[in-house]
Design a protein that fits this description.
By secondary structure, this protein is of the alpha+beta class. It folds into 2 domains: 95 residues, no CATH class; 102 residues, no CATH class. Helices cover 31% and strands 28% of the residues. Strands 1, 2, 3, 4, 5 and 6 form a 6-stranded mixed beta sheet that branches. A 6-stranded mixed beta sheet has the order 10-7-9-8-11-12, with no helix packed on it. It is elongated. 24% of the residues are buried. The mean pLDDT is 89.
Length: 256
């Protein structure tokens, strides 16, 4: 587990994740700092809730082995029931943030908000199918994302009955098509096509193709990001060890 740490209003704040998602963690730290600096909100309590993009984040007070107080940023727990459960491991929330920010940026469109609680209409038959698509229309009401998840080239599209569909909160996509999480903040009119768990096409409301990164491109970028992060950590450790060595030399010099 990787620890990200920042000082906000003289308080130590930490985040824990399984991957070196420095940019995503940094964006959350920056927003928390802005909330503290620009409002009178007290974020350092267990009642604090921040809706950041698709996810919700919370603050939990802790103490280290020496009794020093620090704070942990938690998120909704998608591995359990995110409507009620929280977790220190915010990996999935940071992944969702990275996926959605990247998709919007590469497609060069303005994002339209959605949260993990917002529902999508799902054709049950499509949940285990290889070739599917997602289409976003205007939300019908509050709490509706506007997204539909269905079969690509569905021969029975005009004959489905209401029992053929189920309305699910969008976080359920983690369970049967995790790659679809990345398009949830794309604007109304967007259509995304998937083969198994890989996105194969992305178009706007006028059927114009939109750019998106391939799985291979993301792997290369992730490997580069991890290498840069590991090099940064190694450099920080080397500086700390050098500072310790310098202090020891200085102490020995004073003794002489």
């Amino acid at each position: 587990m990787i620890t990200f740490e920042a000082k906000i209003k003289d308080r130590i704040v930490r985040m824990y994740a399984g991957y070196p998602m420095k940019n995503a963690a940094g964006a959350i730290f920056k927003t928390l700092t802005q909330i503290c600096n620009e409002t009178d909100a007290d974020i350092f309590n267990d009642k604090f809730v921040m809706n950041f993009g698709w996810s919700f984040f919370f603050m939990s007070e802790r103490k280290d082995d020496n009794g020093n107080v620090f704070y942990v940023v938690q998120s909704s727990d998608y591995r359990k029931n995110p409507m009620t459960d929280k977790t220190d491991d915010i990996t999935l929330s940071l992944l969702a943030q990275n996926m959605q920010v990247e998709t919007v940026r590469v497609a060069n469109v303005q994002p339209e908000a959605a949260t993990f609680k917002d529902t999508i209409l799902v054709l049950k038959e499509a949940m285990n199918a290889s070739d599917v698509y997602m289409n976003r229309t205007e939300p019908a009401k509050a709490g509706d994302s506007g997204w539909y998840f269905g079969l690509l080239n569905d021969p029975n599209e005009e004959n489905h009955k209401s029992d053929d569909y189920v309305r699910l909160p969008s976080y359920e996509l983690f369970k049967f098509r995790s790659e679809a999480i990345r398009v949830l903040e794309m604007p109304v009119g967007t259509v995304a096509v998937f083969h198994d768990n890989a996105m194969t096409a992305l178009v706007d409301g006028e059927d114009k193709p939109l750019k998106f990164t391939t799985e291979e491109e993301r792997k290369v970028a992730a490997e580069k990001s991890r290498a840069e992060f590991e090099a940064e950590v190694a450099a920080a450790k080397a500086r700390a060890e050098q500072a310790k060595a310098d202090t020891q030399v200085a102490d020995e010099t004073k003794k002489d």
